[in-house]
Amino acid sequence: MLRTERQIEINAPIKRVFDLFSDLERCPQWMGNIRSVFRVGDNLTQWIATTQGGGSLNWVAEIVDYNPHQVIAWRSVGGDVDVEAQAKFTESSQQTTLLHVLVGYDLRSDLPRKRGSLRRRLGKIRSVS
């Protein structure tokens, strides 16, 4: 499984950052390769990502850890790609939020040509107003 890791400091209170990030349906606002995320069950979301060539990857993810203002984690339970992701939230002494994100993924064996595209695009984070 390929992994990517990012840590950023956000000039906002931890509650606000966690509430925004844990609303997974808003991920397309700051993750450049994610086209859409929508709920399909109590702890399940359907993800659609765009590949560099204009194609798409789809998967269903299950929330496996949810501790408000501390951590949210999910993993795929079906689809084109195996995904494991975790976001940890820590409040700094300056009242900012440290966000540490770890994402691991592995494309299904029948999708090798999309692997490089996803690797380049995975983890691109845009700022949100």
Structural commentary:
The protein is mainly beta and 129 residues long. The protein has a 7-stranded antiparallel beta sheet. Helices cover 12% and strands 50% of the residues. It is globular, with a radius of gyration of 15 Å. The protein contains 2 helices and 7 strands, in the order βαββββββα. β4 (56-67) and β5 (71-79) form a beta hairpin. It starts with a strand and ends in an 8-residue tail after the last helix.
Key phrases:
12% helix, 50% strand, mainly beta, single chain, disordered C terminus, seven-stranded antiparallel β-sheet, 129 residues
Short description, anyone?
The chain has about 130 residues and is mostly beta strands. The protein is built from two helices and seven strands, in the order βαββββββα. It has helices at about 15-20, 115-120, and strands spanning about 1-10, 35-40, 45-50, 55-65, 70-80, 80-90, 95-105.
Topology:
Elements: E1 2-10, H1 14-21, E2 34-39, E3 44-50, E4 56-67, E5 71-79, E6 81-91, E7 97-107, H2 115-121
Antiparallel strand pairs: 1-7, 2-3, 3-4, 4-5, 5-6, 6-7
Main sheet: strand order: 1-7-6-5-4-3-2
Q: Oligomerization state of this entry?
A: single chain
Cα shape: globular
Provide the low-confidence segments as ranges. 112-117, 119-129
> Structural class, from helix and strand content?
mainly beta
| Helix and strand element order | EHEEEEEEH
How many extended strands?
7
| Number of helical elements | 2
Query: β content, as a range?
Result: over 45%
**Residue-averaged pLDDT, rounded?**
85
Query: How many strands, which pairing sense, and closed or not: the largest β-sheet?
Result: 7 strands, antiparallel
Cα gyration radius (Å):
15 Å
What gap, in angstroms, lies between the N and C termini?
33 Å
